[in-house]
Design brief:
heterodimer; A: mainly alpha; MetI-like fold; about 0% strand; B: mainly alpha; about 70% helix; disordered N terminus
């Protein structure tokens, strides 16, 4: 209540009339975005019979077996583990190699620097779909089909453009005085990169890591083509396959889906600031 | 040793500018710089060329052959694959479906997300939580999104049930099985997933609109709407242009959602360029033909991006083509 008495002092007449409308719309938006998620989560606590007779109802009684079955199934955990392994490796590769390249592209002068940078940036316009047939053939030749490496490597390659585009201006903006001081203190250029520039670039590194991780975690097309053996499936692939295999068992599908949302949402809550920062940061160039 | 390398700091690299009298150390430091560059740039470049750049070149080569992906490339057909693709009504339909998503996004999602961002930008309690919730669908994979909506949209499912319970049972459709409805359904799901991204982007953009400008306008007697239209929207220009760019590129590449929800059906009514490409390439092993489709998709994206970069984005970003962020 105190807030409402204080507020009018700053923003006056036209706004106060809008306030109830604002809240109404805010509620509406939240309803539309959250209701489907709630339906999925709650649906997992119902039986198929409950869902069939009253699709939008609440669980009554609450059933825990759907979730219990999924949590007890080996495949869910395996999908989760595969996803984690692939996303973490792909992120590490993309950010590791990307930061090295961004360092060279931002703080060295050499012939062809801008051309090389352009090559990386143009990569943003190559959808994975365009490259997928030759990538598939290449992976087949390298015997990387059915291997997590076969997903992690191309995903890292496709994450390089965004990584470099965000890191390069960030690294370029770090004052040369710091570098000069380091050199005076006897640091080599690579020592400067490792011991000073990388720690200083931490905010940008976190942002690019988050972006690379999410992209890899959510990837569907590449795992779809690389993996035939369900033992290798990632979570998105697992969810989609589970859905088509158990099409009649809606309750289990909902429980499976709800559980697969959890890691994404938890990660998102921790990383939200960096996701938004990364997006808006890239907007400002 | 380390002092020698100091000569190679980036700003002094015009080595002629700082002539060191002794030849050998400089040459050695040059060599060292090259080695450093090789070490720093080599791995990223190799990875990028192998999985991004080379495949594009390879695809343009394969596209000239009738080839199933196995054995040698012998049946050269020139541009036949391109002609065949562009002449296929199914592919023409796919282009149309992508265009539909592009245009519907511009007409519906853009104004909607700006309006919602303006609303959420006002003083509201729990705004942070609200933003978090609105953004949640964006972090879900398209695969999970597709499965969620498959459950919601199944016949006699929640959506149908809700419509009936509010007396709109007449609106109930075969959401994904009716050729005339399916693209609208897919667009609705796309909107559900990506609207939060737009809202967050525009909220960030609104942070950049100085409060003083609005206040000044209000003191001059401008109504809220006038302030929004004449002050806020123009200042939001760069954000809008970025959104439009990302939205169009994303719409042209639509795949996961469609593939899981409909496989491009019924009867090709929701086929997109990417789903057509995967269907031809990987389900029918038409690698040459699929490559031609890939190149067409690439050219469409590339030409659009080039023009957009040149005419719309240049003012904002000076060369940085920004984020494919899915």
């Amino acid at each position: 209540m105190t807030a409402t008495t204080l507020a009018p002092a700053k923003s006056r007449a036209p706004f106060s009339a809008m306030t109830p409308v604002r809240y109404l719309f805010a509620l509406l938006i939240v309803g539309v975005t959250v209701a489907p998620l709630l339906f999925v989560i709650l649906g997992g606590f119902r039986t198929n019979a409950q869902i069939n007779t009253d699709p939008a109802g609440l669980p009554s009684p609450w059933v825990f077996s759907n979730y219990a079955n999924i949590l007890a199934s080996e495949s869910f955990w395996r999908f989760l583990g595969n996803s984690a392994l692939i996303s973490i490796s792909s992120t590490a590769i993309a950010v590791g190699l990307g930061s090295m390249a961004a360092f060279a592209l931002s703080r060295y002068r050499f012939k062809g620097r801008e051309a090389l940078y352009s090559m990386f940036t143009i990569g943003l316009l190559f959808p994975l779909g365009v490259a997928i047939l030759p990538v598939y053939l290449l992976l087949r030749q390298l015997h990387l089909l059915e291997s997590w490496v076969g997903v992690a490597l191309p995903q890292a390659a496709f994450a390089l453009p965004v990584t470099i585009i965000i890191l390069r201006p960030f690294m370029a903006a770090i004052p040369t005085e710091i570098e000069d001081a380091a050199v005076v203190d006897g640091a080599t250029r690579l020592g400067f990169f490792w011991r000073i520039l990388l720690p200083l670039s931490r905010p940008a590194l976190v942002t690019v890591s988050v972006l690379a991780f999410i992209t890899s975690w959510n990837g569907y097309l590449l795992p779809l083509l690389v993996f035939n053996d369900p033992a290798n499936f990632t979570l998105p692939l697992g969810v989609a396959t589970f859905q088509s295999q158990y099409a009649q068992d809606t309750a289990s599908i909902l429980a499976f889906t709800a559980l697969s949302i959890v890691p994404a949402l938890v990660f998102f809550i921790f990383a939200e600031r960096h996701i938004v920062g990364g997006l808006t940061g890239s907007v400002k160039g | 040793m380390s002092t020698t390398t100091a000569v190679v700091t980036p700003d002094v690299t015009t080595a002629a500018g700082s002539p060191s009298p002794q030849g050998p150390p400089r040459r050695r430091s040059h060599l060292r710089k090259r080695l450093e560059l090789l070490l720093l740039l080599g791995p990223a470049t190799v990875l990028f060329v192998a999985f991004v750049f080379f495949p594009l070149v390879a695809a343009s080569y394969y596209s000239l052959f009738d080839w199933n992906g196995f054995g040698p490339l012998t049946r050269f057909v020139g541009f036949d694959n391109y002609a065949k693709a562009l002449g296929d009504p199914l592919f023409q339909g796919a282009i149309g479906h992508n265009l539909f998503i592009v245009i519907a996004s511009l007409v519906v999602q853009l104004p909607l997300s700006i309006a919602l961002a303006l609303l959420l930008n006002g003083k509201i309690r729990g705004r942070t939580g609200l933003r978090l919730l609105v953004f949640a669908p964006y972090v879900l994979s398209e695969a999970v999104t597709a499965v969620i909506w498959l459950s919601l949209l199944q016949p006699n499912g929640v959506v149908d049930g809700l419509l009936e319970s509010v007396g709109l049972g007449g609106l109930v459709q075969l959401w994904l099985a009716d050729q005339s409805v399916v693209m609208f359904t897919i667009f609705a799901v796309v909107t559900w997933k990506y609207i939060g991204f737009g809202i967050i982007l525009f909220l960030a953009g609104l942070q950049g609109v100085p409060e003083e400008l609005r206040e000044a306008a209000q003191i001059d007697g401008a109504t809220g709407w006038q302030t929004t239209r004449l002050i806020v929207l123009p200042l939001l220009g760069p954000t809008i242009r970025i959104w439009v760019f990302l939205s169009i590129i994303g719409s042209l590449q639509l795949f996961d959602l469609v593939w899981i929800m409909t496989l491009g059906g019924p009867a090709g009514a929701s086929t997109t360029m990417a789903s057509y490409l995967i269907d031809r390439g990987f389900r029918r092993y038409e690698f040459g033909f699929g490559s031609a489709v890939a190149i067409i998709l690439f050219v469409i994206c590339f030409v659009f991006a080039l023009f957009y970069q040149r005419f719309a984005l240049r003012r904002d970003t000076q060369g940085a083509i920004t984020g494919r962020v899915e």
